[in-house]
Automatic annotation (TrEMBL):
Top EC class for this record: transferase
Domain of life from the UniProt record: Bacteria
Protein name: Aminotransferase, class I/II
Keywords in alphabetical order: Aminotransferase, Transferase
Length: 366
């Protein structure tokens, strides 16, 4: 397994080794909480507070019905930070990641900030969204594959066969599963977290589980072949130790946050299901709903003679609403807009009607 050359993963120097063996008084310790100057003691742990990781591991173990090792977990402030750390771990400047298209543009922006390119593999619509295996084309500088499960904006989950194929490509997997627990259909779902056939970094977090963007608490779970995991964690510890991003003040709220997840997820799923049904009921004639399997968004298809950008600008000027055009997500063909399924139901229905009315008017004008 190849890791980036950005960081030194050398063995500890002689002083560090001697201190670990002999446990002397550290007269250079500048942590004020060790010297009676703060109301609580803080000891840095690059992976995050051990008790918090144990609580999180218990929660994920029960949720997924599999054992989760707390030492395989890293606590971070956000999935964006997780992407940044993993890009540092796996890629040198000028390297590349494979990522799905259509896809959320933030991933490409985060890679660019690390001077790393993003190469696409395609999802194609065939009654459902499927990975086009022929489009998965790693180059000599490709270092990992990004999997979004379910994808944004398509709302499609990866099939077990697709996941199996990705594990055979000899590259680490970065699996973003923040929307996994928001299904909209009975389509079988397969988590990538805990995958042991390839070195895997699974991302999850509270901001989506609680539908609370202010809840800046996310995590990385590392899994895969034992030797690869051991070396990856040795190096990831160095990155994590350089940042130590998670405040103990946030971790104080972890038990309450974990307890609130089931009820909040149920509330969000009820909202998204209601609005999706409304969208499907309203969409007749020239518009078609591409039904998502999960997530918080829905794609609406319309004749590609209508310019996406002009449609959105018309909605802003004349209807007082805005939506996201398909080209924001690098859709292969024009003729899409994406709507959020999180709106209050009455607000969503009114907005959907305005979008469909604008499309119908544009078709009649052609």
């Amino acid at each position: 397994m190849r890791f980036s050359r950005r960081l030194s993963a050398q063995e500890p120097n002689r002083i560090t080794s001697a201190a670990r063996e002999n446990h002397p008084l550290d007269a250079s310790d500048s942590n004020p909480t060790h010297h009676g100057l703060a109301p609580r003691v803080y000891t840095a742990d690059p992976r995050g507070d051990s008790r918090a990781r144990e609580l999180l591991a218990e929660f994920v173990s029960a949720r997924d019905n599999r054992p989760v090792d707390p030492d395989r977990l890293y606590l971070v402030s956000s999935s964006s930070q997780a992407y940044a750390w993993l890009t540092k771990l796996l890629c040198d400047p000028g390297d590349a990641l494979l990522a799905p298209r259509p896809g959320y543009p933030l991933v490409e922006s985060l890679a660019a900030l690390e001077s790393v390119a993003m190469l696409p593999y395609r999802l194609e619509w065939a009654g459902s969204w499927l990975v086009d295996a022929s489009s998965i084309a790693p180059t000599p500088r490709t270092r990992a594959i990004v999997l979004i499960n379910p994808n944004n904006p398509t709302g499609s989950y990866l099939t077990s066969d697709e996941i199996s194929h990705f594990t055979t490509l000899g590259l680490p997997l970065i699996a973003d599963e923040v929307f996994f627990d928001f299904p909209l259909t009975d389509t079988p779902r397969h988590r990538i977290a805990g995958e042991d056939r390839a070195l895997t970094f699974a991302l999850d977090g509270m901001s989506k589980n609680l539908a609370a963007p202010y809840a800046k608490f996310s995590w990385i779970e590392v899994s895969g072949p034992a030797d690869d995991v051991r070396e990856a964690q040795r190096r990831l510890d160095i990155i994590a130790d350089s940042y130590l991003p998670m405040s103990d003040l946030i971790l104080d709220h972890l038990p309450q946050m974990l307890a609130e997840i089931p009820a909040q997820q149920a509330r969000v799923r009820a909202r998204t299901a209601t609005n999706l049904a409304t969208m499907q009921r309203l969409s007749t004639g020239v518009t078609t709903v591409y039904p998502p399997e999960g997530g918080w968004n829905v794609l609406l298809r319309f004749p590609d003679v209508i310019d996406e950008e002009e449609l959105v600008l018309t909605l802003i000027r004349d209807a007082g609403i805005t939506v996201q055009p398909g080209y924001f997500f690098d859709m292969r063909v024009p003729g899409f807009v994406s709507l959020s399924l999180l709106l209050e139901p009455e607000t969503f229905e009114n907005a959907a009607k305005k979008v469909i009315d604008a499309i119908n008017s544009a078709v009649q004008a052609e």
